[in-house]
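#help-structures
NK: newbie question, is this the right format to request a structure? protein is Putative mRNA 3-end processing factor
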Amino acid sequence: MARDFSWIRPEPWGIHVTPADCWIDPSRPVDRALVTHGHADHARGGHGETFATPETLAIMKLRYQTDEGAQATVYGETISLGGGVDATWLPAGHVLGSAQILLEHAGERIIVTGDYKRRPDPTCPPFQVTPCDVLITEATFGLPVFKHPPIEDEVAKLLKALADNPDRCVLVGAYALGKAQRLIAEVRRAGHHETIYLHGAMERMCRLYEEFGVDLGDLKLVSEAKKDAIAGHIVVCPPSALNDRWSRRLPEPITAMASGWMRVRQRARQRMVELPLVISDHADWDELTRTVEEVNPFETWITHGREEAMLRWCQLHQRRAKALALVGYEDEDD
């Protein structure tokens, strides 16, 4: 029997679930929004109702000062959206609260992955492989050149630079939601339990992670410490602060950045990064293709990144696929 999955419509500003008249990660205000996670290219205020995990709703309240119409959905919970559509939030492994959304209607199953990764992360549950008819997958790092190294190797580079330069600090630029907390948790897992200093813009999100049970150890603000006390320590800041006047208060900082884009040497040079750390919260090429193989959908819809290479891979492997043209989804400082 032919299947066209016409009940779900990709539009430039989001994915429209037509029988229930709701949208997934819309880039403009709508009456009913299903949100996969809290990053600004997926979450925003102004919706009538917002369905998301409790963690994502807390992140949205903190970042966008919005909680009107909030409808919390825990992992594994199935809710009826109306119009014969059921939705279930499943772990995506991207950041705290991140979820895939499984939609079921008329015997068909569609999964919208949102952003995801397959690597273990001490700050959020791992990605859950779930069979479906259509897999709508991100492709941020959807080129064969992107193969992320083990995070243990990158953390070891960071700690070696710290040990080799006891009179300096290592200043790490990291995205304020997800990357910073994962980096800190991985450094703790590697046995580093010294104080980690934070730029003021990082503190509230780190405290929110702690409220949800993520142990980040001893954290202090740079503004509350003397310059000499910060020597021999890790400092975490937004990428925009790496070469800002703010960094002049630090003791000869070694500039580092934690991002999957540090695989691209030109990006590291552009940001004047001495110590590039290839740490990503997105799936790399091998993870993207492995996920398609394991989920084994009837069709794969590709969005948010390098769609052409993923589309070609699907074609070469005799898999039905198409690229979507959504707007408002940008490369983050991942």
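mod (FA): yep, format's fine, and the tokens are attached above. The chain has two domains: 8-145+282-323, 151-277.
NK: thank you!
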